Every structure is written in C-alpha cells, then in structure tokens.
Amino acid sequence: MIAIIEAGSSNTLPDSQNVSRGNTFLSSELYVGIDWLQFCAVVEVERFKPLLDAAIHPFSDEYSLEAGVPVTRGKKYANSGRSVRGAAIAWTELNDGSREVFVSLPASVLAEASLQEIWEISALLKFSYGVKFTRVDLRIDDYSKQLNPDLMLKAFQDGNYANFRTLDKIQRWKSGVEQGFTLYFGHPKSEKRARFYDKSAESKGVMDCYRLETQLRRGSAEATMQLFLEIQDFAAESPALLGRLVCGAIDFPDRVHAGEREKNLDRCEKLTWWQAFLDRVGERLRVASARPEPCLEKTFNWIEKQVQISIGVVADVLGEEFFETWLHGHLVNAKKRYRDFHRNLIEIGRKDFGTATT
C-alpha cells in the first residue's frame, strides 16, 4: 500500500530536510520530484515573449536575450539567452516569420516550485503553446538508503538485470575516505538513462539520502509528460506515477534462479532487495516511445520553410541548365542514402498521389 499525502503540502519533507518545494511525499522516507524539464516549440513572433514568460517567470526567475549570439542545443540556433537561475534559451527565425524555440529548465529553476505548480505550468505550455517536451528528469529520494549500490553491481555482474545494457560506476575519494558514488545505467545517448547516487555527498550533507533518477529524452520525454498531464486527481495520482516511472528505466529480475539466463522476464521474480523497494514505490511503469509515422506532408512543409529560398538562390546563380545538372547529381546521391523510413515514405506518397508502381 502506498501512502500518499497532498502534493506540495507543508509536510512533504521533515523541516530539517525541506530544501526543495518540488519534493513530494510518496511513502515512508521516499519522496519524488521533477529535476529537469526541456522543450521546443514553433511560435509566431508575437507569442515568443509570452511563451518565455510562461515558462520562466512562475519560478521567480528572470531572463535576458542575446540576439545574434548563436548556440548549439542539439542543433544550432542563431540566438540565445539565459535566466538568472540557469534556464537556457535559444531560438532561430524561420523563413515564414515564425520562431523555433528551445528552453531548458534545470533543477536550479524547478526547485522554486511545487510538483503541482510544475504540472500546471507544463499544462499551460503544452495546451496553449503546443510545446514538445524533449527531456524530463524524474527522481526518488530515499532517506532510508534502502537500495545498496553493491547489490546493484553484483546483480549486473550475475546477469540479473534488464532494460539497460551498460553500467558505469564512479567513486569519489578524498584523503582515503569515500566521498560518494554514482551508478549510471544505460548509454549516455539513450532515450532512457538512470542514475543512482549519494545525494548526501553531492549536497554536502544537506540532503541525507540516496537518489534514484531517470532521464527521459526525445519521444520518451514526450510520452512521459503526456501521462503526467493526463492525471485527473493530482494529489492522489502524481507521486505514485512519478515513482513508477523512475523505476521503469531499470529492472533486476532473478534470471539465474528462474533458469539459465532466463530471457522471458514474465517467468522471473525480482531479486529480493529490488522487490522490497518496489513494494514501497509501486509497480514499475515503462514508457514506450512511439516511432514517428512517415508523413510526406511534413517533408513538403520542411522544404517550403527551410530550403525553398536557398534553392531559388542557387538556381538564379547557376542558371536553368546548370541548376538542373547540379540538382540531378544531388538527387542521385540522396537515393544511395535511403533507409527503410524513406522507402516507406515513398510508398505512402505514391499511393497518396496515385503514382504507385506495380
């Protein structure tokens, strides 16, 4: 049974540990929260500043913009900005006059809001501005320190793990004394990656707990936020949902005892220590990132917005005859790089335009 109190209430943390309004009580000595929120959007110029105001001002934060100062945030943006608390902003002017916007809100920003306030702000961004969430970090803080990093390492060495392929351990020492540890589950570029570390060491004793944190990116981030924003009874549902999502990125089934490296996880019980932790959190919830369906309309829109003018300039420079030769050569090279996605797109497009071949 998961005990739940009202999200964001004054007793979400003991007074001595109440360092973040975003920490919300889940069950005995377990607290959940959101540690990072990142999104992108395409908006009209007149909606650009209202979008930034909606994303940053509710966190008691102010921002400044630097037009003409480029920055790379997964892709290159022509302009950038920052907030006092560390939010990152980037944008590029598109050919149709709209702006492609990137905003990243780290823990230093989100710490100023309760979980319910983050939920309300996220809903406004999604439903009023159509943002697409590209990263969300969820956490469980365990003040009982029930999970043991050595047991996690042993489970990995024994083959009793699932949902990740690599595990890296970093230990920090000073004068012969361990100053903390961090376990990383999964590849750094994976859509889902978990971390387990000594928060007491990181916070210099302010938060005496172990933290299990899951980073979700791209499609997994959008799917996670969709679940979060669909909550009907926030106080009753949100803590349990976040806890289950955090644990969804990793698993420790007892494969060896179920049979020689049993591959069917449904036949495996959990390792005892992992099951004991899940009994406090709830059943794991693993989000699936849906693959985008091929859509020729998006390709046409992209050409019109991003490259139409550039192609026109090249055509005027080269002249009609040389331009056709140049374009044909690039089309031949492009076809050599087709993947299954592009072949499916061609098949769908031919059916839509009535040009399908037999």
Task: Kindly describe this structure.
The chain is α+β, with helices and mostly antiparallel strands. The chain is 39% helix and 24% strand. The chain has twelve helices and 13 strands. It has helices at 45-56, 107-110, 115-129, 149-158, 199-202, 218-229, 234-247, 255-258, 272-281, 296-318, 320-335, 340-353; strands at residues 24-27, 30-43, 63-66, 71-72, 76-77, 79-83, 88-93, 99-105, 132-142, 167-174, 177-185, 192-198, 210-217. Strands 1, 2, 3, 6, 7, 8, 9, 10, 11, 12 and 13 form an eleven-stranded antiparallel beta sheet that branches. The protein has a two-stranded antiparallel sheet with strand order 4-5. α10 runs antiparallel to α11 (320-335). It starts with 23 loop residues before the first strand and ends in a 5-residue tail after the last helix. Residues 1-19 have low confidence and may be disordered.
Q: Topology of this protein?
A:
Layout: E1 24-27, E2 30-43, H1 45-56, E3 63-66, E4 71-72, E5 76-77, E6 79-83, E7 88-93, E8 99-105, H2 107-110, H3 115-129, E9 132-142, H4 149-158, E10 167-174, E11 177-185, E12 192-198, H5 199-202, E13 210-217, H6 218-229, H7 234-247, H8 255-258, H9 272-281, H10 296-318, H11 320-335, H12 340-353
Antiparallel strand pairs: 1-2, 2-8, 2-9, 3-6, 4-5, 6-7, 7-8, 9-13, 10-11, 11-12, 12-13
Helix pairs in contact: 1-3, 10-11
Poorly predicted tracts of residues: 1-19
Order of helices and strands: EEHEEEEEEHHEHEEEHEHHHHHHH
Helix content: 25-40%
Number of helices: 12
Gap from first CA to last CA: 60 Å
What gyration radius follows from the Cα positions, in whole Å?
Answer: 24 Å
Strand-pairing-aware structural class: alpha+beta
**Strand percentage, roughly?**
15-25%
How many DSSP E strands? Answer: 13
Instruction: Give the biggest sheet.
Output: 11 strands, antiparallel
Q: Give the overall silhouette.
A: globular
Give the averaged pLDDT, no decimals. 86
